[in-house]
Amino acid sequence: MTGIRLSLALEGGLALPASARIAVFAPTDSSDLSPLPADMCHIITTDKPARDHFAALGYTCNTAPEGRYGAALVCLPRAKDLARALIAQAADVTDGPVIVDGLKTDGIESALKACRARATCEGPVNKAHGKLFWMNPAPEFSDWRQGPPQEIGDGFVTAPGVFSADGIDPASRALADALPEKLGAHVIDLGAGWGYLARRALERDAIRQIDLIEADHTALSCARLNVTDARAQLYWEDALRWRPDTAADTVLMNPPFHTGRKADPALGRAFIAAAAEMLKPSGQLWMVANRHLAYERALAEHFAEVAEAPGGDTRFKLLHARRPLRKKR
After folding, report:
1. Which of 150, 158, 196, 216 has the fewest C-beta atoms lying within 10 Å of its C-beta?
2. SS3 state of residue 190
3. What is the pLDDT of residues 286-326, one digit of tens each?
4. 168, 45 in Cβ contact below 8 A?
């Protein structure tokens, strides 16, 4: 509902520059930017599906700011450190108003309170379970700037906002520990994040190629630091749309199951369907999922053999599927 709040703000005193570019930070593919002049907007996102969505609509897109802007809109993400880093980045490159919009469930109240402690915040516009406010001019937020990737132990680095930014995900560790020695020559890590599963898989000399597919550009940048083996190929792609040039022997994954704060098991089911299309007829899928998520039916729809593997616990389960089923044409 960003569009509704933007429209109300523009009617209630928010003034945009007449001929300067507008930076839009971290919109989702459901963000309504229609109140803004599309030809003046520069979409800045690290999310591949969002980038593809706005590029298809004709917007100019990039993963980082370019030059100066007359105004900026920050679409607030859930992660507090990332949200603050985006506000700081917007303030650094903007000569006019910095607008912040977000849902109450994503921390907009906290962001408004923190910004009010150091700047005059106009608005806010309260509508559709969210708020929008703006600062003009925006102060410096040097203490909110995002630093370089940070070490989390075991030789891995991560960045704010990526999945499992504070440490190795226990479910991913359990899956990596349970993987058999024989995974085949060609492996795909679907939704690779910052590269933990891929690096663990590469402990096997028999692997000749592993493809890391990740939609979050920031996470993939960390993966480039974590997975330096020459056998690794990294792709900034939507895992549901990307397909390999040659079918793989094994797909590994710890699929996402949230859209915002809402559980959305359909995401995991879509990952399963995509994985089946990437595999050889004799290929196999290894995945980990929260125990309450009933993925077995989806697996049975796409694979001839499905079983729970040892190594799970009361929180999550390890699932192994073999021989993908081909749809009849």
Report:
1. 150
2. strand
3. 999 999 999 999 999 999 999 999 999 999 999 999 999 97
4. no
Measured CA to CA, the distance from residue 190 to residue 178 in angstroms comes to 17
Q: For residues 162 and 193, is the Cβ–Cβ distance under 8 A?
A: yes
Among candidate residues 176, 170, 178, 173, the one with its CA nearest the CA of residue 308: 178
Angle at 68 between CA 65 and CA 73, to 5 degrees: 65
Residues 162, 194: contact at Cβ < 8 Å? yes
* Tokens at 223, concatenated: 């993966």
- Kindly tell me the burial class for residue 76, based on how many C-beta atoms sit within 10 Å of its own C-beta (0-12, 13-18, 19 or more): buried
Phi-psi domain of 212 (left: phi exceeds 0; alpha: psi -120 through 50; beta: other): beta
User: Per-residue pLDDT tens for 148-194?
Assistant: 999 998 999 999 999 999 999 999 999 999 999 999 999 999 999 99
Tokens of 11: 């009617």
Return the ∠ at Cα 303 (arms to 191 and 220), rounded to 5°: 10
Nearest to 87 by CA among 59, 114, 125, 53: 114
- pTM reported for the whole predicted model: 0.93
- Cα of first residue to Cα of last residue in the chain, in angstroms, is 41
